[in-house]
Write a structure and sequence with these properties.
2 domains, about 230 residues, about 15% strand, Rossmann fold, NAD, Arc Repressor Mutant, subunit A, binds nicotinamide-adenine-dinucleotide, alpha/beta, single chain, 7-stranded mixed sheet, about 50% helix
Length: about 230
């Protein structure tokens, strides 16, 4: 690791370790967007970027960007801007992506196949280490270079692979049961695509992706515009 990378890592770790001043959840939610914007900037060969440019790329205002980055202790330099490599490294550390996270996917149907083959997961610091299903037609097949294992072996697979994050793409009816199994196996983060809320203990984080709900929110804003009311 060169000097700049290790300095950024130290900054990020210092930030992550700072007590009493957690990064607000809304800021955390925008950090992946900043990271993506920085990756595009870096791919164009730029070493420095301004808050205006980065904010435009990430779809936020420059003031919002500066405020968010200030929580990371990153203020940029007047007239110079932000060091792209340093900021990328810092955000990577704060998001907990400096170390590769092992991910297990349960339910290798339509969505599971698509996600398993999504290269963006590996590009962002995650490694898919296991695929599980119950369908005899799916178990034993190879998807994205991994052999699909039977969901009955979930605990053994978590033990063997060291997975800490589970992606749930099973039918809704079995999602809670699979979630319970993942938690019992030691998984601490669950990304679920199955409709419905999951109950988990306090030490486990759940993120829900629901395309239909997102569309409903767009429909709400569309309707509010057409009836002349203000959507907030
Ligand atoms: N959140 C979203 O935006 C979104 C979009 C599409 C689908 N979905 C949801 O994602 C889930 C998957 O959708 P799909 O179209 O891929 O369905 P699918 O039927 O193609 O795939 C589901 C897979 O889960 C497996 N499965 C069933 N019970 C299991 C268990 N106990 N353990 C392990 N695997 C099990 C099935 O064998 C099948 O391979 C559904 O709950 C669906 O409603 C969500």
């Amino acid at each position: 690791m060169d000097d700049r990378r290790s300095a950024a890592r130290r900054d990020g770790e210092r930030r992550a370790a700072r007590e009493g001043q957690p990064v607000p959840p809304a800021t955390v939610g925008r950090l992946p967007g900043y990271l993506r914007a920085l990756e595009v900037t870096a791919s164009e060969g730029a070493v420095l970027t301004s808050s205006d440019e980065l904010a435009a790329r990430a779809g936020v205002t420059p003031a919002q960007l500066r405020k968010d980055l200030s929580f990371l202790g990153s203020y940029g330099r007047r007239g110079i801007g932000y060091d792209v490599g340093h900021l990328r490294e810092q955000i990577t550390v704060v998001l907990g992506l400096a170390d590769v996270r092992r991910v297990l996917l349960v339910g290798v149907g339509n969505l599971g196949h698509a996600l398993a083959n999504y290269a963006g997961i590996a590009d962002r610091g995650f490694v898919l280490v296991g695929l599980l299903d119950v369908d005899p037609a799916v178990v034993g097949t190879t998807v994205a270079g991994l052999e699909v294992e039977h969901a009955d072996d979930l605990r053994a697979v978590v033990r063997r692979t060291g997975a800490t994050i589970g992606v749930l793409t099973t039918p809704a009816a079995v999602a809670q049961g699979v979630c319970d199994e993942l938690v019992a196996a030691g998984v601490v983060g669950i990304l679920t695509f199955a409709p419905g809320a999951l109950r988990v203990p306090a030490h486990v984080d759940v993120r829900t992706v629901d395309v239909a709900s997102e569309l409903q929110i767009l429909a709400f804003h569309d309707r509010a515009r057409s009836v002349g009311g203000g959507a907030s």
